């Protein structure tokens, strides 16, 4: 029986550190990607108060919606489209303080105001992107990017 996540406290960096440690313990001994990502994104979503938290996986030259927490979202995103497709194409994380000023942003929900997308690499190729949205403007910064990249690196072993 899995233990529940203890809500992390402190600075944002301290909260991420505590959360990532708890996520790793939660997934310890489990090799199934879906199971581990389901718990990872649930823990992340509820601990950090995000609006939408999930993953799009590269399948047949498209991004396809994977495990997530939050409102329903668009299922497929083309290479180079939206924030997710741009992150895939440019092979880098993208911080979007205000989604309305990101050219080509795909609005799955009008409530989403800011966003961060982080690629997951396997053998130097992007295999998926982590996408996190907030219903507040300017919610994410380099600290979010840093720890989401750490999480992306850890999740890559399941691909
Ligand atoms: N806003 C994303 C689409 C995915 S949803 O936010 C969940 C984009 O522009 O790629």
Description of the structure:
With 159 residues, the protein is of the alpha+beta class. A hairpin with a 6-residue loop joins β2 and β3. The protein has 4 helices and 6 strands. The longest helix is centred in the N-terminal third of the chain and has 16 residues, at 12-27. The chain has helices spanning 12-27, 33-48, 82-90, 142-155; strands at 52-59, 62-69, 76-78, 94-96, 114-122, 125-134. The site of methionine sulfoxide has 14 residues, from α3 and β6.
Ligand roster: methionine sulfoxide
Calculate the mean pLDDT score and round it: 95
> Structural class of the helix and strand makeup?
alpha+beta
State which percent range the strand residues make up: 25-35%
**Separation of termini?**
25 Å
For the biggest β-sheet, the strand order reads 3-2-1-6-5-4
What is the C-alpha radius of gyration, as a whole number of Å? 15 Å
How many β strands by DSSP?
A: 6
Report on the biggest sheet: 6 strands, antiparallel
The string of secondary-structure elements, in order, is HHEEEHEEEH
Question: What is the count of helical runs?
Answer: 4
Sum up the overall morphology in one term.
globular
User: Which stretches are poorly predicted, pLDDT < 50 over at least 5 residues?
Assistant: none
Portion of residues within helices: 25-40%
